[in-house]
Amino acid sequence: MPVASKTFQVTVLPGDGIGVDVTREAIRVLEALTPSLDGVNFAFQEYSVGATEFLKNGNPLPEDVLIACGEADAVLLGAMGLPDVRWPDGKEMTPQIDLRERFELYCGLRPIRLYHGNDTPLKGYKAGDIDFVIVRESTEGLFSARLSQSDPAKEEVCDLMRITRTGSERICRSAFKEAEKRRRKCTLVDKANVLPSMVYLRSIFDQVAEEFPDVKTDHLYVDAAALFLVQRPETFDVLVTGNMFGDILSDLAAGLVGGMGMAPSADIGDNCAVFQPSHGTAPDIAGKGIANPVAMILSAALMLEWLDHPETTSGAARIQNAVQTVLEDPANRTPDCKGNLTTTEIADKIIQLL
Ligand code: ATP
Questions:
Q1: pLDDT mean over 70-92
Q2: How far is the CA of 53 from the centre of ligand 1 (A)?
Q3: What is the pLDDT of residue 60?
Q4: Which residues in 237-252 are b (16+ Cβ under 10 Å) and which e?
Q5: Cα 59 to Cα 141: distance, rounded to the nearest angstrom
Q6: Residue 77: beta bridge partners?
């Protein structure tokens, strides 16, 4: 049966700092790929967001942008926020968390893959030896406390860790589905030896596991998970965990494969999905043309996979293969990974292979 042609509406939010630099390259990659996709097109609609937008109009995430995100087929986001641009009360802006909460983007996918032995601080690992995904719950957990007010008179502050059945079931299900596409192993990372909320999460993980009899499961306390990620990362396939542990372990995991510039991510909900690199705006190198665009380009590939059209699925694989081929040569790196290429040069090499 012929596949229907389709124009995907993509809301593009370059944001601040290197978000702008790497988004430009990801769009170039998608534009280079499009002519070879049969019947598939992309309509990119770009909006200003983040600290830069706040300085212009007083709101880092204007309502018309949120509406555009809700209506689009997918959202491509660079990075938002600058250390010196804060709310009047001094708090840092976290518009990416606002986006997650507004659209219930509960499933944070953070694939981690080693492309060359030179990129990892671990000895004896080569391309492909490290290949796992962290599935981070992104709408509840300890982050639920972020808007609570503390009473300075009380001389104590208590942050609530919120774990719900609905939130836990859906994130565990997402993780098991991810495992079904991979090596069929799913590890819950928790702190069930100490926290009742984690005992509850573990009980739900075990219940959901019964729906996926082909997936092998185990549990790890978060402290042990940190140790084993460094000692034997090759043993992991899918790790599912709460908001805060996922936040921390994602950065540790990125450090195993070359740093933040190599770590793509997706924040996925039932009706909306945002694709962005795991890194922030890196103001120290913004505008210098040396930001590593690989995480952003791989995030664009995740978007194509998620759009779930036969042409975008094969387009995603082509981008991933092109990235893999380019990175087989350790000289093809930006300075964060001990190379000399610019942001544009590395994207050009990927584009040449498409
Ligand atoms: P956030 O608070 O949102 O995590 P941040 O600026 O504190 O943002 P990142 O931007 O994620 O943290 O990165 C920290 C440092 O890592 C940067 O200052 C930069 O030196 C380096 N870095 C991050 N991403 C990249 C990249 N894509 N290319 C090169 N270097 C990067």
A1: 92
A2: 20
A3: 95
A4: bbbbbbbbbbbebbee
A5: 26
A6: 13
Q: Taking the domains of the chain in order of start, what are their residue ranges?
A: 1-106+263-354, 131-148+161-255
Residue whose entry in the numeric block shows the structure tokens 């790497």: 22
Residues in contact with ligand 1 by the CB-under-6-Å rule are 18, 81, 260-261, 279-282, 284-285, 291-292, 295, 334, 336
Residue 2 has pLDDT above 80, yes or no: no
**What's the one-letter identity of residue 113?**
R
Residue-wise pLDDT for 259-277, tens only, equals: 999 999 999 999 999 999 9
pLDDT at position 196: 96
Write the pLDDT tens digit of every residue in 177-200.
Answer: 999 999 999 999 999 999 999 999
Q: Where are the alpha helices (DSSP H) in 112-242?
A: 165-181, 196-209, 222-231
Q: Say whether pTM exceeds 0.90.
A: yes
Report how far residue 298's alpha carbon sits from residue 10's, in angstroms, rounded to the nearest whole number. Answer: 16
Residue percentage of the chain with pLDDT more than 90: 90
The Cα 237–Cα 45 span in angstroms is 35
Among 276, 268, 323, residue whose Cα is nearest residue 299: 276
Check residue 1 and give its pLDDT.
57
CA of 325 to the centre of ligand 1 (A): 25
How is 27-77 classified by DSSP, letter by letter? HHHHHHHGGGSTTEEEEEEE---SHHHHHHHS-SS-HHHHHHHHHSSEEEE
C-alpha of residue 252 to centroid of ligand 1, in Å:
13
Is 37:315 a contact under the CB 8 Å cutoff?
yes
**For residue 146, what pLDDT is reported?**
79
CATH no. for 1-106+263-354: 3.40.718.10
CATH 3.40.50 describes domain 131-148+161-255: yes
